[in-house]
Amino acid sequence: MKDISARLQKIAQSAPHWTELRYQKRRSQSLQVQKGLIKQAKSNVVAGLGVRVFVDGAWGFSSTTDLGLKGIEKAVKDASRCATELSGFVKKSGIKKLPEVVLARGEFMLPGVVELGNMSLEQKLATVLQAEERIRNCSSKIQSATCTYQEFFEDKIVVTSDGAQALSCLARNELRLTAVAAQQGQLVEGHHSIGRTGPWECLFNPNAVEVMSEQTAKLAADLLKAPRVSGGLSTLILSPAMVGLLAHEAIGHTVEADFVLSGSVASGKLGKMVASPLITLCDSGKVDENPFGGGDILVDDEGVKAGTTVIIGNGILMSYLHNRESAALFEVEPTGNARAWLFRDEPLIRMRNTYIKPGNTSLEEMIQSTDDGYLVDGPLGGQADATGEFMFGAQKVQKIQKGRVTDLYRGATISGQAFNVLSTVDALSKEFRLDLGSGYCGKGQPAKVDAGGPYLRCKAIIGGIQK
Q: Within this chain, do residues 370 and 266 fall inside the same structural domain, yes or no?
C-alpha cells in the first residue's frame, strides 16, 4: 500500500491538470445455506486504479488494473485525452476550476478489519449453518429456510494533485435470514437482515443469531393466518427501519445536489420549513450514537473527510449533499458524499448513514397515546421519485387500538409525499437505531448505505398488498 501511495503522489505532483488517482482493493466472500445444504461459497479479489482529470470544465476518466508506473501513466494520459480532445462532445461543468478545500491526509481506519480477517471460514460457516437449521426447526409450518452471509474488506488510497493523500481501510459484513412458511397451499415469507461495518460481533448486537433465527421463523408462521390491512389515511408508528427507508429513499435522494440541479422537489427550498419542527434529519460518515453503521466511511472518494451534514434542522431544509463540483456550483463546502463502488466507477453524490434524530418519549408511551393506528415494521423496499412521492412495502403491520397493540396483518404498503408526511409528525421515540445496513443503494452503481432513526408517529396512506 505504501509503495502504491508513493507512486501515486509522485504522478499527481507532476500532473499538468487537476488529477485524482484512486486505488482500490476489495476482497469479498459469501456463504449461503438452504435446506441444510451449502448452496454458495464464493470469494473474489479485485484491485485497480481509477483516474479523473478536470480541464476547463471538462471531466476525463479512465481505469486500469496495471499498477506499474507505466500503466498508471498511460491511464492518466487516457483520462487527459478524454477531457481535452473530446471536450467538445461532452457536457461541461458550470465551473472551470475546482476551488481549494481542506482535503484529508493520513490513514483512516475503521474498527474490525483485523478481527474479522482473523476469523476462519469454518467459524463463519458454522454460524450460517446453525442459523438456517434453527429457522427450520422452530415450527412445523416452516417449509424451507435460507441464510446468507457476505463480507468484504476494502483498502483505498485517494491522491489528488491539490493535496489529498488519504489511505482508508474498512470491513463490512451482513447476514440475511429468510423463512418460508406453508399451510393449505399458501406460502408466506419472513425476512430479517442486518449489515454492519466492523467486527463479527457487531452483527449480533442487540440480538444473538439464535434470537434472529427464531424471530424470522415466528414471523413467517404468524403471517400465515394474518388478514390484509384495510386501506386509507391512518395514524402510523413507523419502526426505525421504516423511518430509515423514508429518510433515504424519499428525502435523501431529493437532496443529492445532482438531483437538485435536475429539478427535484427540494430545489429552491433551502431555508424553508419542509417538515415538523420535531424533525432533524442528518447524513453522516459515522454515527456516534450507533457505531458500526452499514454506510460508515471516514473519507470519501474525492479525499474529503466524511463528517455530519444536517439536511433538515428542526423542520427547516438546511443543506444539500455535495461532491466537490456541486459544492463549488452552490458556493458551499463539500459534504464528503462523493462515492464510487469500484475503481472503474466514477464517484457520484451518494448518501452514507441517513437518519432522523431521536426524541424524548418512549415507544411504549407513543403506543399508549395512540387511540387508533398501526405499528409498521419490516421494510420490503419500494419506490420513490424526485417529487418526494413514495410507496414502500412492509411485512409486519400491527393494529393499535386504544393504546394497545392488537392484531397482526399480513403486509401492507405505505404511501404519500415525503415532506408532507414528515410535516404530520407529532412524536419521536428516544429509542434509536440504524437498521438498513444490509441494503445497497442503486444510482447507476451500487453503494453500501445505512439508514434509520427513532420510532416516528405520522399520518400516511396504508393499504394491503396482494401476493
A: yes
